[in-house]
């Protein structure tokens, strides 16, 4: 029994360290401020219907993740079923939550789809297209919100313009490079090489050849994916539309938590914008689950709304948007391994 326990701990050591780190940050906030006192006061006045809506929004985000994946999967494999796609989506949430820069989600999704019988190249194409469409929608979504709420956050959040502009430029540059690579691989190569040489000249890039190879390989993945998936405009429009709904639901979670605290002064659009900015800032944090960065950015953007209740708000928000992903992602990873260990037998669309 002890040997099995030690083996399980060694196997999941990284996940355990991640959870301990994130939980430690939350406990630090609670016990080094008045957070624990505020939490006790809020629990007595909590409005359960609004808290239920915040949890429901998170669950619907999971469902829509599976739905989008299923749309892309059945485009290549008509007999693919939603249950498989939902499990793959939850596995993505799980491993994105426990790996630095959320880098483990997509490879584990491809690995899982391969075990379910999907061709590795086609699985990679589906995940690549899903990732790209999400990034495109997220950047456009953030641009609209920046245009709507720029003045408010500029006057309310210190260094807001710097953080937002860096985030938008970084994400937009990657998307533009991918799009350009799909149109002209030669032109993109020249641009990437020129930029890397310039950065190397400024002593900002120590190994230009290795950096170019990594960028080129990543761009090629999206290029190959676009050829495999084809040019189905209707499919991409539906996928992007559903992604807009998914991002909106995720951005509504802090507002529902806010209302569950019996607060109602802040406009819903402003809080949705704040959550979009939190998501963008958190993406720069290299720790698993953006630990520290997620809590810090939430504190910066939402402190003006929650005031003395900000620490309990962070606690509830992280439980719903992070710890639930790990808990239920782990459950569905186990279910997928047991239930979908029989590879699909249908031939993919060509």
UniProtKB/TrEMBL annotation:
Primary enzyme class: transferase
UniProt superkingdom: Bacteria
Reactions catalysed, as given in the entry: L-lysyl-tRNA(Lys) + a 1,2-diacyl-sn-glycero-3-phospho-(1'-sn-glycerol) = a 1,2-diacyl-sn-glycero-3-phospho-1'-(3'-O-L-lysyl)-sn-glycerol + tRNA(Lys)
Transmembrane segments: 12-31, 51-74, 123-148, 160-183, 235-258, 265-285
Main location: membrane
Keywords: Antibiotic resistance, Cell membrane, Lipid metabolism, Membrane, Transferase, Transmembrane, Transmembrane helix
Membrane topology type: Multi-pass membrane protein
UniProt subcellular location: Cell membrane
Pfam name, any one: LPG_synthase_TM
EC number: 2.3.2.3
Protein family: Belongs to the LPG synthase family.
Function (record text): Catalyzes the transfer of a lysyl group from L-lysyl-tRNA(Lys) to membrane-bound phosphatidylglycerol (PG), which produces lysylphosphatidylglycerol (LPG), a major component of the bacterial membrane with a positive net charge. LPG synthesis contributes to bacterial virulence as it is involved in the resistance mechanism against cationic antimicrobial peptides (CAMP) produces by the host's immune system (defensins, cathelicidins) and by the competing microorganisms.
Protein name, as recorded: Phosphatidylglycerol lysyltransferase
């Amino acid at each position: 029994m002890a040997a099995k326990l030690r083996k399980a701990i060694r196997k999941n050591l990284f996940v355990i360290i991640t959870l301990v780190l994130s939980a430690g940050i939350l406990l630090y906030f609670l016990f080094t401020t008045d957070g624990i006192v505020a939490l006790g006061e809020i629990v007595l006045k909590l409005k359960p219907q609004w808290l239920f809506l915040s949890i429901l929004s998170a669950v619907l985000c999971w469902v829509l993740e599976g739905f989008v994946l299923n749309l892309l999967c059945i485009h290549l494999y008509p007999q693919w079923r939603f249950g498989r796609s939902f499990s793959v989506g939850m596995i993505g949430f799980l491993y994105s939550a426990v790996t630095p820069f959320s880098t483990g989600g997509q490879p584990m999704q491809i690995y899982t789809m391969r075990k379910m019988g999907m061709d590795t190249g086609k699985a990679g194409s589906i995940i690549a297209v899903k990732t790209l469409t999400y990034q495109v929608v997220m950047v456009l979504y953030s641009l609209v919100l920046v245009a709507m709420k720029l003045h408010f956050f500029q006057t309310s959040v210190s260094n807001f313009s710097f953080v937002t502009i860096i985030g938008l430029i970084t994400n937009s540059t990657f998307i533009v490079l991918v799009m350009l690579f799909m149109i002209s691989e030669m032109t993109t190569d020249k641009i990437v090489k020129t930029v890397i040489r310039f950065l190397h000249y400024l002593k900002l890039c120590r190994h230009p050849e290795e950096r170019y190879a990594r960028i080129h390989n990543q761009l090629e993945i999206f290029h190959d994916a676009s050829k495999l998936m084809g040019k189905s405009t209707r499919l991409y429009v539906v996928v992007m539309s559903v992604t807009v709904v998914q991002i909106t639901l995720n951005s509504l979670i802090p507002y529902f938590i806010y209302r569950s605290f019996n607060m109602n002064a802040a406009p819903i659009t402003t809080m949705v914008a704040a959550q979009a900015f939190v998501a963008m800032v958190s993406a720069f944090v290299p720790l698993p689950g953006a630990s520290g960065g997620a809590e810090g950015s939430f504190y910066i953007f939402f402190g003006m709304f929650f005031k003395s209740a900000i620490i309990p708000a962070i606690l509830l928000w992280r439980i719903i948007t992070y710890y639930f992903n790990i808990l239920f992602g782990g459950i569905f990873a186990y279910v997928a391994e047991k239930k979908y260990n029989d590879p699909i037998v249908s031939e993919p669309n060509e």
